[in-house]
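Suppose you are handed a protein chain with no further information: no name, no annotation, nothing but its sequence. What can you learn? This example shows the usual starting point.
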Amino acid sequence: MTKNPKKKRLYINIVTITLLILGTLVAIKFAKGYRPSLENKTIQGTGLLNLTSYPKSARVIINDKLTTVTDDKLYLSPSNYKVTIEKDGFYSWTKNLPIKSELVTNTDARLFPIIAATSPITFYQVKNVSLSPDGTKIAYTLNNAPQIPNNGLYVYSLSNNLLSSNNLQIAENTQNRNFSDSLLIWSPDGSQILTVFSDKGKITSSHVLSTREKTTGTLTDATIRLPLIISEWQDQYIKINQPNLTLVPDYLKEILTNSATNVYFSPDKEKISYSPTTNLNLPENKIGALLPNINSTQETRKLIKDKTYVFDLKEGTNYELSVASKSAQVQKNIILSVDATPSASIDSLKQLKAQTESFYTSNIVWYSNSRQVIIINDSGINIVDYDGQNLVNINPVGPLYNFAVPNTDGTKLISLTNLNQKPDTFNLISFDLK
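A reasonable first move is to predict its three-dimensional structure. Written in structure tokens, the prediction is:
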């Protein structure tokens, strides 16, 4: 008896479709991290640990066992793991990471050299220094150069410049005017520098200098125009601050504008460092509750007056930086309105300087990648993760004026420090962080 060929084809099609459906389901489960367990004879869900680091090819030690090298991906059973990433010549990075079923956990470890190679930027004594608002240039004053005309005010570019020198002298010292004795204030757009000379708190003279070319001849005194300059620069900061604050949850915006000082956004605008002026409690982290996976470090929602905290806008998490401290002389108040009658006082000018120079108001500076913070304390120059983990020492010698800033890509750190020189001689030194 001949079998029905139509039925045969139907059976084949049904089997094929069934196998395709089963294969697709298995592929989906496999892609989600499910793996067969021979021990339990079941299919278990796993989580993906994405191991990345800079520099690459660093050893990965999980629960005290050498497992792989970065960059790599591992499927692990849901649990808590102690992950250490290390490389010869660099400080190790360690963190306890929870692995959750069907979720990806990232390391993104930044390793810093134990002994950073150094190179001098200046040689003849720097006594005054200031960082541009965008973090790409340093203004500094040079003294004791062999040629007297070489002493004066300079601008150093932190970006690699293949066509010209990174150093530009924008003004010379004179017998009656030494820029080392002035207050240096960058304009919000970085195109000008205001130099203010004072005696016992009273302004004696001031000058507005271009940062793009050398000013020659007699400098025009700008003291009479200071109220107008302050007003114009306050207005520019308002246009910068208001859009930034739209990214902030309402409850934190209230704190930052009315109950906090030294508010500084990270370079990528996704994190904020700040110091509350009173004891406060942050509400429950509703942002983090909606996300499948967030930073595993224990956060702090109870704020203590004068402590320093970092808030992560993407995850809604808040961490205390216990190694941070405020300056006793100057505190930054975020500018959100123009003074009705701006006065040309030293205090108002210092507020303009404090808007972008966090080393002027505290001992912290954001690192270029927004994942670390530079800390200046009794042990010298340190770098720590934004959540307070993995503190490492870059140099045991502390810088003058707390000045230690990264270049634009984070491969170097520039510090006003003393290395192998007379005790009272400080110069700009570059530390290689690659």
